[in-house]
């Protein structure tokens, strides 16, 4: 691995630190993690930690998640250095006409994310950890994975998968079939007749108007 | 109202803050968005904030009640057929269609076109092998057989060209009124606005300028286009509304009539309002 001479840090040596998880596990982190976790990077810049034997407490993150994030960053240490550190969420709007893709997760990332599941809630844990640590690439992999799970499912299946409760009957879009009786007002005016008919049955959109 | 909104937005996905759900929703395809809207009120509330401006536009068009559903079959084109069209164009001509046009073609969930619009003649012709003008089939129709992608030109005199590039005024009464290009489209746009758009176009494509063969007077600029729809066939020849495929006006729609550049028509495919053929 070539060292990137353009990368400069406000903090100087040491280049490894210790962090401790919510459940008291202690991990060594190196540049690969510090470079990718904006939260840690900022912490080190602000805190000016000289003593690298004292672990930095990360009270929001379980040890298993912290460990996984460290593994992820080790694997991605090279590719991420080349990506400019774009602060903004505007990235989103870079080309308003270019759809964002969720089918571009690399093979390694797919394997990596498989250890986390919705049922056990660990997929959400790793996403929350990535969010807290501000590791953009890991957060994106997690979000894309969930987006892919939503794809091809009808609203019932999505609710079931994520344990989302129904809105009060008679008020929302997701009321079970046949229970929408009264003429709804307000936001339901947004719906076409076709959509009102199809919203519970969720047929293929291609056929919605046939 | 604000209170109700906040209500919808709480607990959209158990255990996940809404800012992360917004990122998740931003990765959904348009088709999935239509289903996701029915998951819960909070999802439905958050989706418009999460999706791209193009999807926002498509969604509001999809939810409007004015989708033209009574069109004859030869004006309907399914997603799969549109996909085939896009693939054909992109592989045959080694280009990538403008994103807005491409996404609309590949993701609009109905065989019926967007409200206030109709599928391009060229697409209908390619797909259904039936002419949208005379509704005759393949061999019988002599209305048009468009070459799908080609270079369209803006031709003008060299002196007008250099006046425009140098920002000098052009007088209509002047000898230089050879510059028909600038003033030749009364049926659609006229006057100052049209002229301004045309001048802009000439500046944008100035680097494609070539001298006309056998003439030192005329020069042409070349713009790669996909013809979409015919217009004004009765009068002086047929005109084509064309989608610009390359250069700085990529994605815009411009007109060419009887082989001459005929002016700006729309900024994008979604703003384009072709002449609707009555069903």
Automatic annotation (TrEMBL), chain A:
Q: Give a GO biological-process term.
A: ubiquitin-dependent protein catabolic process
Which residue intervals define the domain SKP1 component POZ in the entry? 17-78
Q: Which UniProt keywords apply?
A: Ubl conjugation pathway
Do you know which Gene3D superfamilies this protein is assigned to?
Answer: Potassium Channel Kv1.1, Chain A
Q: What is this protein called?
A: S-phase kinase-associated protein 1
Superkingdom assignment: Eukaryota
Transmembrane ranges, per UniProt, are: none
- Compositionally skewed regions (Polar residues) per UniProt: 175-193
> Region (Disordered): which ranges?
166-210
Family, similarity comment: Belongs to the SKP1 family.
Q: Which residues form the SKP1 component dimerisation domain?
A: 136-167
From TrEMBL, chain B:
- Which segments does the entry list as coiled coil? none
Domain F-box: residue ranges: 10-58
What is a single Pfam family found in this protein's UniProt entry? F-box-like
Q: Gene3D superfamilies recorded for this chain?
A: 1.20.1280.50
Q: Please name the PROSITE patterns in this protein's record.
A: FBOX
Q: What is this protein called?
A: F-box domain-containing protein
């Amino acid at each position: 691995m070539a060292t990137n001479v353009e990368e400069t840090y406000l903090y100087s040596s040491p280049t490894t630190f210790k962090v401790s998880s919510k459940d008291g596990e202690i991990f060594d982190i190196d540049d690969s993690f510090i470079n990718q976790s904006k939260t840690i990077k900022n912490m080190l810049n602000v805190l000016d930690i000289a003593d690298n034997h004292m672990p930095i407490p990360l009270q929001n993150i379980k040890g298993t998640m912290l460990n996984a994030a460290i593994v992820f960053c080790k694997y991605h240490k090279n590719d991420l250095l080349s990506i400019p550190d774009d602060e903004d969420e505007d990235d989103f709007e870079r080309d308003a006409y270019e759809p964002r893709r969720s089918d571009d997760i690399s093979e390694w990332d797919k394997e990596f994310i498989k250890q986390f599941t919705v049922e056990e809630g660990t997929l959400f844990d790793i996403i929350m950890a990535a969010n807290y640590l501000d590791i953009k690439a890991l957060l994106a992999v997690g979000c894309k994975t969930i987006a892919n799970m939503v794809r091809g499912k009808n609203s019932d299946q999505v609710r079931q998968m994520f344990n989302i409760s129904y809105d009060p009957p008679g008020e929302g879009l997701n009321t079970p079939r046949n229970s929408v009786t009264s003429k709804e007002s307000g936001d339901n005016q947004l719906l076409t007749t076709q959509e009102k008919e199809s919203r519970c049955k969720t047929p293929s959109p291609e056929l919605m108007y046939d | 109202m604000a209170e109700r909104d906040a209500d919808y937005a709480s607990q959209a996905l158990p255990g996940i803050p809404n800012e992360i759900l917004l990122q998740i929703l931003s990765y959904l395809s348009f088709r999935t968005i239509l289903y996701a809207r029915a998951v819960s009120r909070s999802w439905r509330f958050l989706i418009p904030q999460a999706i791209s401006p193009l999807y926002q536009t498509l969604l509001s068009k999809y939810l409007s009640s004015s989708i033209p559903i009574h069109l004859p079959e030869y004006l309907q084109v399914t997603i799969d057929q549109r996909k085939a069209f896009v693939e054909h164009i992109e592989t045959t001509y080694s280009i990538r269609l403008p994103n807005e046009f491409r996404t609309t073609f590949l993701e609009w969930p109905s065989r019926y076109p967007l409200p206030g619009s109709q599928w391009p003649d060229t697409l209908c012709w390619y797909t259904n092998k039936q002419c949208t003008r005379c509704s005759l089939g393949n061999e019988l129709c002599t209305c048009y057989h468009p070459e799908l992608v080609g270079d369209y030109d803006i031709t003008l005199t060299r002196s007008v060209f250099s006046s425009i590039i140098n920002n000098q005024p052009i007088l209509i009464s002047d000898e230089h009124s050879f510059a028909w290009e600038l003033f030749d489209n009364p049926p659609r746009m006229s006057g100052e606005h049209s002229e301004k758009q045309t001048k802009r176009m000439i500046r944008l494509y100035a680097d494609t300028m070539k001298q006309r063969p056998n003439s030192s007077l005329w020069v042409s600029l070349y713009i790669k286009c996909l013809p979409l729809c015919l217009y004004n066939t009765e009068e002086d020849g047929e005109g084509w509304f064309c989608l610009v495929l390359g250069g700085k006006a990529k994605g815009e729609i411009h007109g060419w009539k009887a082989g001459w550049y005929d002016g700006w028509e729309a900024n994008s495919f979604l703003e384009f309002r072709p002449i609707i053929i009555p069903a």
